[in-house]
Amino acid sequence: MKLLIVDDEKSIRLSLKINMKKLGIDVFTAESGEEGLDIVRKKMPNIAIVDIKLPGISGIDVLKEIKQIKPSCIVIMITYLSDVKLAVKAMKMGAYDYFTKPFSLSEISRSIEETLEYAKTKIEIDKGSRDNQVKFIGQSPEIVKIKENIKEIASMKYNTCILLEGESGSGKEVIAKSIQSIKGDTIPFISINCAAIPKTLQESELFGYEKGAFSDAKNAKEGLIERANNGVLFLDEIGDMDISLQAKMLRVLQEKKFRRIGGLEEMDFKATILSATNKDLKEEIEAGNFRKDLYFRLNIIPIYIPPLRKRREDIIPLVQHFIENYNNVLNKNIESISKEVVDIFKSYLWPGNIRELKNVIERIMIFKKDNKITLEDVPKEILEDDSIEENHHYNLELVEENAIKKALDKNNWNITRTSEELGVSRITLRRKIEKYNLKNIKSDNFCN
């Protein structure tokens, strides 16, 4: 297991590193977001502890980049009390948890121990769920139409260019793998995330190189384009491809030929090109970040995947799919979810789209003991989200009551810590406790 600590305060980095090493894991530290992301690319840590306020790029941006480079990395944010709202925003973007400064080293060590168990389970989940990744779930008219289109495209013995556009986590990679699956599992499927590879290395990754092409080229290397020949090449986050490399990629698409770096031999290239982006490429063209001619070449068949909030009828089928998957992987027996949870899931905006929904179900099921998902299992950042509106069927007061109860139990009914976590005053919290007649079953007295 590998853990990364990103914090500009040397004392925090050092104390966390000493304590984390006691858990028997490899620990890496960085004092800036840029340095931290460089370590992520090289070491691919399982867990990252990231301060929200960093010099240079912010902790929120670091979280976003980590989730692009290694989506399975578990990210824990640390922040001062005044920045708790940012921490909640981070949770919605995929952070696993957050701690407020000053924090207890023993408390964070216990949390990391639990997170390590979660990370180990997650590795097994990722291994066990690979067979389910090509299932494209959805019954909304938009998704039904996309299914029909990709089936027709993939069934043709013809290589073309397909541009997948949609928000992060909306299912672009699943569509790409669905196309490859229909074409035949025996053909190569080669994927590159342009956002996860430094722009200086993108060309050598794609085109490969001959021995002696540059100082570090001790041996010849086959590039991803070469490996994808007669198969599918998936260019994920194409909007982050280096502008100078775009011209070379355009030549490959037009002439169906390429050369390794430092090579003289031209090689043939025949493959279906799938490109995906969550950026508006037309805006990128206007800004001078993307070539117009490459855009038209990639956009022969455009497919737009709507965000999950625009196709709410797909939410519960996806939930059922993930439950079935994790029942098999985790040897669980979850049979149902309560109506309140169904209503909340349908009302929540899911800014992280399908990826966020999948992560929420995964987290719930890892710790779930009985066979029904209820309101108390739903993460607090969803229960407290502003997108859950009053005109839906569930009782908002019930949501608030459960959120307060969970926070009180988590903090052992310490009023000060609970009010800080919930972002309300002590007086407001006491009024809410009286309003809902909440009781501490462990003690008759509040601990302040």
Report what the structure shows.
Keywords: ATP-binding, Nucleotide-binding, Phosphoprotein, Transcription, Transcription regulation. One of its GO terms (biological process) is phosphorelay signal transduction system. By secondary structure, the chain is α/β, with parallel strands linked by helices. The chain contains 19 helices and 16 strands. The strands form five sheets. It has a five-stranded parallel beta sheet, with helices on both faces. It has a five-stranded parallel beta sheet with strand order 7-10-13-6-14. Helix 5 (105-128) crosses helix 13, helix 6 runs parallel beside helix 7 (172-183) and helix 10 packs across helix 12 (292-298). The relative contact order is 0.09. Residues 127-134, 390-395 and 444-448 have low confidence and may be disordered.
Offer a few descriptive terms.
448 residues; Rossmann fold; Helicase, Ruva Protein, domain 3; five-stranded parallel beta sheet; 19 helices; 16 strands; globular; disordered C terminus
Q: TL;DR?
A:
The protein has 448 residues and is α/β, with parallel strands linked by helices.
CATH class of the largest domain: Alpha Beta
Percentage of residues in helical conformation: 40-55%
Total beta strand runs: 16
The strand order across the widest sheet is: 2-1-3-4-5
List low-pLDDT spans.
127-134, 390-395, 444-448
- Can you tell me the CATH topology of the largest domain? Rossmann fold
Average pLDDT, all residues:
84
Modified residues (4-aspartylphosphate): 51
GO molecular function, one term: sequence-specific DNA binding
Domain Response regulatory: 2-116
Protein name: Stage 0 sporulation protein A homolog
